[in-house]
């Protein structure tokens, strides 16, 4: 099995926080930093697993590799579950602390930072879980008849808070007469959401905008996610989709991302039987295009 050091450290620190919550010994001013440390340990653990998997792939035969991937998928899935359990309890205790009376301005600020870090940690755990399932081909895809208009509404609901927090404009253009889909609407909405979030975050200025548009090319649904952000250089485009890759740009580095969003989106589109491509111009923006065959 891969080295479990970073993952075990994350688990130990979460367990310590949970015990502190149970005994009323949480120190609010320290909690944001503690959660941040756990998030970084989790990212390190996932990188260790990815490196170990790559090393195993170069050495093992097909049968050995299949067995290794099954073991590794089980381990990461189990680890994510074990980390989510105390995080849920910590979030509950934090909500309880916030309702125990009037808070002063400093306490409100601490609670806001704590909740932001918990939300980020939960998002990271979800991303690690999705990436693990995509890489090991264990992600469940449940296809059913769906309209893109319904899927777009899910994306809008999931992303509107992010757009508001960042002060960005999010536009959806979904005309009538689009091809009917046989797909997993939740997974498609998740993939589009990853592209949308990428566009919302990486912008300099006060007029950031992301547009999700759809059109029909015969019986093919064409979805475009266009932003007017910082764009992506040719060198970075060549690495886009690589797990943990993040561009070396000040705007990108100011957000504590995991480098899993675009790889997850690409993996989901492929699992759904679609194709994707990207066009980008530095300082002008980026367009991701998804193509999915409609029902015959």
TrEMBL record:
CDD domains: HisKA
Keywords: Kinase, Phosphoprotein, Transferase, Two-component regulatory system
One function term, GO molecular function aspect: phosphorelay sensor kinase activity
The keyword Signal is assigned to this record: no
InterPro entries: HATPase_C_sf (IPR036890), HATPase_dom (IPR003594), His_kinase_dom (IPR005467), HisK_dim/P_dom (IPR003661), HisK_dim/P_sf (IPR036097), Sensor_HK_Regulatory (IPR050736), Sig_transdc_His_kin-like_C (IPR004358)
Domain of life per record: Bacteria
UniProt name for this protein: histidine kinase
Species of provenance: Phototrophicus methaneseepsis
